[in-house]
């Protein structure tokens, strides 16, 4: 059995950055499952930059608030990113003065310090160069649980200029460093190891500013000085009988987006670790029965399981078309009719592949008193999104329903391009884990729901509709 990983505290990490030392930060196994070196750009030295280059691929990035990038006139590298992680690369830069070729550790350290210097302007940099600035999203890790936002948050919380330097750790054989290997490196070199999940939890407790659109523009200040505002406001609760079972429907108003969300909670009560589905609004699939997606059958299956097992379905409005809106989704469908896939269509229209986030879902679960869930999803981003906001996902159950000839290509793209777990379609090539003998939508006694479950048959052999994947608590 491997030894437990020793993690430092956020306070340890802030002290290290103030002292000019790097910290190692790992993200979720369901996201990139990688560890990065993070330095404060204002105190970057040739020695620590050289150390970072030696333990990484040498691809050195400089996260900063979008307002800082605007002030330095650093536009996005491309107007439409095709990166599934939506990393916001700008044009590359070198310092305009004080460097030679720009590639040495000393030159890159100087460029990093120039980026962090409040007196620097657009004329302080030349383009292109050897350092890759990144634009962090407002709200930091409370909005996007990535290394870009973690670097800016840590520098700001340390009272430093909110500009970092990050690089992905790489083993000598070229493979990516995972958490256990990062722990060994931290132990050997006396560095602090942290996870983004712990940073999110720390910020929620000590710096609870959600992504309201404010920018983190100054050391120790910016958005962190604003008063905390709850993400959702509970409105009303009522009894809601459905064909799947009886629920209490809870209404919520999203205080950041204005969207109106609901949660359907089984009247049987919530289990200690309830089955939960976080369902993104899909008018065409949920209401019209569209066969272009699997959303309707997934919703039916989730409601039936929640009613049967003491669970809940959180229904998020504003997520139509993975967050691009109904009419934009129709436009994307038109592009798919012409041969584009679901990701390419979004990108062609100027949208990211997926612009959803799950802070509201986590806030709704918190209001319901739910801290640990067995999540019904094929989408690793939902796991990461909930975990980043303090919800422990103890089990992931993959919904294998609604596959038709009309959506086979759509589902394959979600598996291969977006990492969705769909046995037989996902790019990882791994066989599905244990399959539960549970029908897609277990009917209430005396209720015929076969018209809501695609490809339903009277065959007594159960369909393999749910796949269990154990994840660490």
UniProtKB/TrEMBL annotation:
Q: TM segments?
A: none
Q: Which InterPro entries match?
A: DHBP_synth_RibB-like_a/b_dom, DHBP_synthase_RibB, GTP_cyclohydro_II, RibA, RibA-like_sf
Which organism was this protein described from? Cellulomonas cellasea
| Record text on cofactor binding | Binds 1 zinc ion per subunit. Binds 2 divalent metal cations per subunit. Magnesium or manganese.
Q: Name one GO molecular function term.
A: manganese ion binding
Q: What is this protein called?
A: Multifunctional fusion protein
Which residues does Mg(2+) 2 bind? 32, 147
Region annotated Disordered sits at: 210-231, 427-473
Q: Which NCBIfam families does this UniProt record tie to the protein?
A: PRK00393.1, ribA, ribB
Q: Which gene encodes it?
A: ribB
**Involved pathway(s):** Cofactor biosynthesis; riboflavin biosynthesis; 5-amino-6-(D-ribitylamino)uracil from GTP: step 1/4; Cofactor biosynthesis; riboflavin biosynthesis; 2-hydroxy-3-oxobutyl phosphate from D-ribulose 5-phosphate: step 1/1
As for what it does, the entry says: Catalyzes the conversion of GTP to 2,5-diamino-6-ribosylamino-4(3H)-pyrimidinone 5'-phosphate (DARP), formate and pyrophosphate. Catalyzes the conversion of D-ribulose 5-phosphate to formate and 3,4-dihydroxy-2-butanone 4-phosphate.
**EC number(s) in its UniProt entry?**
3.5.4.25, 4.1.99.12
Q: How does it assemble?
A: Homodimer.
Q: Where does Mg(2+) 1 bind?
A: 32
Name the PANTHER family for this protein: 3,4-DIHYDROXY-2-BUTANONE 4-PHOSPHATE SYNTHASE (PTHR21327:SF18), GTP CYCLOHYDROLASE II-RELATED (PTHR21327)
């Amino acid at each position: 059995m491997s030894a437990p990983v020793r993690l430092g505290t956020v306070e340890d990490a802030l002290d290290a950055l103030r002292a000019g030392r790097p910290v190692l930060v790992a993200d979720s196994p369901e996201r990139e499952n990688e560890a990065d070196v993070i330095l404060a750009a204002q105190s970057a030295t040739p020695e620590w930059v050289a150390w970072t280059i030696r333990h990484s691929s040498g691809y050195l990035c400089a996260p900063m608030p979008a307002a800082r990038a605007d002030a330095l006139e650093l536009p996005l590298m491309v107007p439409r990113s095709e990166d599934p992680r939506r990393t916001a690369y700008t044009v590359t830069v070198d310092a305009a003065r004080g460097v030679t070729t720009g590639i040495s550790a000393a030159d890159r350290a100087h460029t990093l310090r120039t980026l962090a210097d409040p007196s620097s302007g657009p004329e302080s940099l030349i383009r292109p160069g050897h350092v890759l600035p990144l634009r962090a999203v407002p709200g930091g890790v409370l909005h996007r649980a990535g290394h870009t936002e973690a670097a800016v948050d840590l520098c700001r919380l340390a009272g430093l200029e909110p500009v970092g330097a990050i690089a992905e750790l790489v083993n000598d054989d070229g493979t990516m460093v995972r958490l256990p290997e990062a722990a060994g490196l931290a132990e050997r070199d006396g560095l602090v190891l942290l996870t983004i999940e712990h940073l999110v939890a720390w910020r929620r407790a000590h710096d609870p500013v959600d992504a309201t659109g404010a920018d983190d523009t100054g050391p120790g200040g910016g958005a962190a000085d604003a008063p905390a505002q709850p993400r959702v406001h509970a409105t009303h609760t009522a009894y809601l009988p459905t064909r799947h079972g009886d629920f209490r429907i809870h209404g919520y108003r999203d205080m950041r987006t204005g969207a109106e969300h609901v949660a359907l909670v089984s009247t049987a009560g919530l289990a200690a670790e309830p089955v939960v589905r976080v369902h993104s609004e899909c008018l065409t699939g949920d209401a019209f029965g569209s066969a272009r997606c699997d959303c309707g059958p997934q919703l039916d299956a989730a409601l039936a399981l929640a009613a049967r097992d003491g669970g809940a379905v959180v229904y998020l409005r504003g997520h139509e078309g993975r967050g691009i809106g109904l009419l934009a989704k129709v436009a994307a469908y038109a592009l798919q009719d012409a041969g584009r896939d679901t990701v390419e269509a979004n990108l062609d229209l100027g949208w990211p592949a997926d612009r959803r986030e799950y802070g509201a879902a986590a806030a709704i679960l918190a209001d319901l008193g739910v801290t640990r869930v067995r999540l019904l999803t094929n989408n690793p981003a939902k796991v990461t999104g909930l975990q980043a906001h303090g919800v422990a996902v103890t089990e992931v159950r993959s919904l294998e329903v609604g596959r038709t000839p009309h959506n086979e290509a759509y589902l394959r793209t979600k598996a291969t391009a977006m990492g969705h777990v769909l046995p037989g379609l996902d790019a990882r090539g791994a066989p599905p884990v244990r399959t539960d003998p549970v029908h897609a939508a277990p009917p209430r006694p005396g209720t015929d729901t076969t018209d809501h479950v695609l490809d339903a048959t009277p065959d007594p052999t159960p369909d393999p509709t749910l796949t269990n994947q154990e994840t660490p608590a």
